[in-house]
Specification:
Blueprint (H helix, E strand, L loop, with lengths): L32 H6 L4 H6 L4 H11 L11 H6 L9 E7 L9 H7 L1 H15 L1 E8 L4 H16 L15 E6 L9 H8 L24 E5 H13 L1 H4 L3 E2 L2 E2 L1 E8 L5 E6 L5 H8 L9 E5 L8 E2 L3 E4 L6 E4 L7 H6 L8 E6 L4 H15 L5 H18 L6 H11 L9 H22 L5 H17 L1
Parallel strand pairs: 1-2, 1-4, 2-3, 7-13
Antiparallel strand pairs: 5-6, 7-8, 9-10, 9-13, 11-12
Helix pairs in contact: 3-6, 5-6, 6-9, 13-14, 13-16, 14-15, 14-16, 15-16
The structure holds flavin mononucleotide (FMN) and iron/sulfur cluster.
Flavin mononucleotide binds next to strand 4 and helix 16.
Length: 465
């Protein structure tokens, strides 16, 4: 690691531990297989293909790898949900939709280190017994799709894909599938529908858990790009060793994508839980813009609940309980959940005191209203109602009671839909109303209250006729 040189001005920060992003912005690096092989590429595939498939899954479990796509679900556990004694084909799908606002990590892996992903996928396919795998990549990444297709062809020519790989008799084909450019195509069952050539309407779980009834109703594993890359390093380091990076139950490294009101936004690969939000903002991102104060942070992609800069968070229980400020939050799955938000997809959005919270929540609501697939009523109607109410707040045309209405609409989506988009869309509104109620109300017009009430009365009267 110490000998690796990076392009001037793009060197990793001292707080970073580059594993997945080792080759991103590396000097004299290109995405060709020759460059990858010179650096020890595909050695872990060779090693894994000497192991029993079950041993690989066991290593992934020992490592404690949690999915990097959003939910943080343990990858080894997910793999072990595949039905035993199954006689249907098993598929593996790499989720390269990267649709969560604030998240921009998978694209760099694909553009600069595609063979790392292919190697991680080949090992994962061998572990779960998949002879066919897909990389579902969003339509907006045409260059990434081409890079992956070239890399797959190279891996084929060198015998890392195809028939009888490395003389093991194992066969694997990987295909790149370009999505149609929709947020909901990132939701795993919507993705599967789209891959089958249909509208990406998410499926109901249960029964359609992909591991049991996925692509073409066959057992299917869906994992994020970054998650699958980690598998290669788990085999290289051994699960036990790999788990020594990061913190207990929050092992390994992960890439944080920082956007918003900091001097140097960008991507940073850190050991999970070893860097606090304060260190991320002040040390790694060069601090806030001059003269500005921190107002709020969305720590895990746009669906994560917002944190207020002046909040304190109670962590631990009984004698071990302690109160910390936003600056001291370690950026890991469990702590961010305990703080009432989530680590999600690693997209950290920083907002300073120049931001209007009405504008921010309206911006998010515009996105969710646009992206709802429309399949279930609370989400289809509710996401549009939330947008319409915050449109009015921003325009100064909302009554104060609209804010309660906004909250009620969000709470009637949350938990009442087919897929987790319902929560993704309602959590931002619920948290902004809970934490910035006064500011939202200050942007409303109390004079409209009577007009609003009168309009309601008129409507009620009209309905009675
Ligand atoms: C609305 C919505 C959008 C999602 N978008 C993505 C995405 O773009 N990329 C991704 O990897 N996971 C996304 N997910 C999560 C996937 O459904 C799935 O949990 C993930 O791909 C599993 O991979 P992992 O276990 O490796 O994290 C999304 C989930 C929802 C509800
Ligand atoms: S929650 Fe929204 S996005 Fe998900 S299935 Fe229902 S309408 Fe579609």
């Amino acid at each position: 690691m110490s000998q690796i040189k990076y392009i001037a001005g793009k060197e990793p920060h001292a707080n970073e531990t580059r594993v997945i992003f080792k080759n991103v912005d590396r000097e004299s690096w290109d995405p060709s297989i020759e460059t990858y092989l010179q650096d020890g590429g595909y050695d872990q595939q060779k090693k894994a293909f000497q192991m029993e498939p079950g041993e690989i899954t066991a290593e992934v479990k020992t490592a404690g790898l949690r999915g990097r796509g959003g939910a943080g679900f343990p990858a080894g556990l997910k793999w072990s949900f595949l039905p035993p004694n199954n006689d249907k084909p098993v598929y593996l799908i790499c989720n390269a939709d990267e649709s969560e606002p604030g998240t921009f990590k998978d694209r760099y892996i694909i553009h600069q280190d595609p063979h790392q992903l292919i190697e991680g996928m080949a090992i994962s396919c061998f572990a779960v017994g998949a002879n066919l795998a897909y990389i579902y990549i969003r339509e907006e990444f045409p260059e990434g799709a081409q890079i992956l297709e070239t890399a797959i062809a190279e891996a084929h020519r060198k015998g890392f894909l195809g028939k009888d790989i490395l003389g093991t008799g194992f066969e694997l084909e990987i295909y790149v599938h370009r999505g149609a450019g929709a947020y909901i195509c990132g939701e795993e069952t919507g993705l599967i529908e789209s891959l089958e050539g249909k509208r990406p309407y998410p499926r109901i779980k249960p029964p359609y858990f992909p591991a049991a009834m996925g692509l073409y109703l066959c057992p299917t594993i869906v994992n994020n790009v970054e998650t699958l890359c980690h598998v290669k390093h788990i085999i290289g380091m051994g699960g036990e060793n790999w788990s020594k990076t990061g913190t207990p139950n929050n092992t390994g490294t992960r890439i944080l994508c920082v956007s918003g009101d900091v001097e140097k936004p960008g991507y940073f690969e850190v050991q999970v839980g070893k860097v606090t939000l304060g260190e991320l903002i002040n040390d790694m991102c060069g601090g806030l813009k001059a003269g500005r104060k921190l107002k709020a942070v969305i720590p895990g992609g746009s669906s994560a609940k917002v944190l207020r800069a002046d909040e304190t968070f109670k962590l631990g229980k009984d004698d071990d309980a302690k109160e910390i400020s936003i600056w001291d939050i370690p950026m890991d799955f469990d702590t961010l959940a305990a703080c009432g938000s989530m680590a999600g997809s690693g997209g950290v959005i920083i907002m300073d005191d120049s931001r209007s919270m009405s504008w921010v929540i309206n911006n998010l609501n515009n996105f969710y209203a646009h992206e709802s697939c429309g399949q279930c009523t609370p989400c289809r109607e509710g996401s549009l109602w939330m947008k319409k109410i915050t449109d009015r707040v921003v325009a100064g045309k909302a009554a104060p009671s609209d804010i309660d209405q906004l909250d009620a609409v969000a709470r009637n989506i949350d938990g009442r839909t087919i897929c987790a988009f319902g929560e993704a869309a309602s959590w931002p509104t619920e948290s902004f109303v809970a934490k910035f109620r006064d500011e939202l109300i200050a942007d409303t017009n109390p004079e409209l209250e009577d007009a609003f009430v009168n309009a309601e009365a008129l409507t009620a009267a009209a309905n009675l006729k």
